[in-house]
């Protein structure tokens, strides 16, 4: 097969690698808008902090050469002509395909006045992150204003604070990472940020980026103005689907895919941050913008393009904050539980969110050693009612789960 993969992020490069492995004599063309080898955005902060490339270029900077993938960098897809099976690039060139993987990921979503002012920075891709970090390296940034208190805003605040920049983080919601952390767990993250010298302005609505001719601040809903050398939008992400405007590929927020990661057009699959896949728990379709989902989807989408007929088990939500100083893991959902069990002592915290006796969400801070056990119980949809409060006690562990699984079998055997 002649396969074309749009994107060399975690989903795209995984798809390209899978295509090469399963179809050694086929052609694989991969396209990206950026000048870098395939990289992991999740490793950018570490790269800028330490200068190390190993986790950034997680498949090796020479992955395309090594695997015989025809990699075209700085190539922007402008349209997909599904009738003729061709990808149209922005210089008018056409790239034919037998099978197409769309793994174009996501971009900054900043629905705020002034977001297009020159100088509004973001940390969504290596290209934009390089521009931002260039200003820090050149000593042009003593202060930074980060708008958006989600995962990327928090990660960037920590990075800049560690590089000696005076950081203010502004967020509309009253606690950080509100989509994944509950307020109690979030307070640990907030403490970690404060310990690193980050000023938190939470529960504060930013109305507009301001400055003439370039941005130099943010106007708040209460009329107040904050100013800084660096002004960064970390207000959310949106799937890269603009180039599908005239195509019959069905999109909503992202690209609609079925449980085979097929789009509405035969011969076209989608994976990663651009795809709206079903949640393993609720079946609800939305974009699950995390690295493990992108990789898993890249693999399944590519195999199915070659006719494998693999079902994608469903995306799941899982986040961990690496640079906070306090380990934090959040998985599943904190929405609509019918019971929440909590345990806290010193720096350690466990919260388990339950619906109908099964785990739907877990938040851990400090001692996160039990994350794997909770994850496995959650995925198995195990009925955990029999554990009662013991479920969140520090003594809860593998022994409980194993003896619980073994006991009924032993009783049956007797
Ligand atoms: C700062 C940061 C930290 C993160 N930390 C974590 C973390 O700790 N854990 C975690 O699980 N996830 C993390 N994530 C999220 C994770 O990085 C993403 O879920 C993952 O990168 C998605 O992979 P993807 O391949 O779908 O898309 P992307 O990585 O966004 O890659 C998209 C690719 O498509 C290309 N492309 C886009 N449009 C076009 C076009 N028109 N033509 C040609 N090519 C195009 C781009 O050039 C790029 O190669 C983080 C993200 C960021 C930004």
What's the layout of helices and strands?
Blueprint: E1 2-6, H1 10-22, E2 27-31, H2 44-50, H3 63-67, E3 70-72, E4 77-81, E5 86-89, E6 94-96, E7 99-102, E8 106-108, E9 120-121, H4 126-137, E10 143-147, H5 151-162, E11 166-171, H6 183-195, E12 199-202, E13 206-210, E14 217-220, E15 225-227, E16 230-233, E17 237-239, E18 255-256, E19 268-270, E20 275-278, E21 285-286, H7 291-305, E22 318-321, E23 328-332, E24 339-345, E25 348-355, E26 358-365, H8 371-379, H9 398-413
Helix pairs in contact: 1-7, 2-5
Bound molecules: flavin-adenine dinucleotide.
Description:
With 414 residues, this protein is an alpha/beta fold. It is 25% helix and 27% strand. The protein is built from nine helices and 26 strands. It has helices at 10-22, 44-50, 63-67, 126-137, 151-162, 183-195, 291-305, 371-379, 398-413; strands at residues 2-6, 27-31, 70-72, 77-81, 86-89, 94-96, 99-102, 106-108, 120-121, 143-147, 166-171, 199-202, 206-210, 217-220, 225-227, 230-233, 237-239, 255-256, 268-270, 275-278, 285-286, 318-321, 328-332, 339-345, 348-355, 358-365. Strands 3-2-1-7-19 form a five-stranded parallel sheet, covered by helices on one side. The protein has a five-stranded parallel sheet with strand order 9-16-10-11-12. A five-stranded antiparallel sheet has the order 22-23-26-25-24, sandwiched between helices. Strand 14 and strand 15 (225-227) form a beta hairpin. Helix 1 (10-22) packs parallel to helix 7 and helix 2 runs parallel beside helix 5 (151-162). The longest helix is centred in the C-terminal third of the chain and has 16 residues, at 398-413. The chain is globular, with a radius of gyration of 23 Å. The structure holds flavin-adenine dinucleotide.
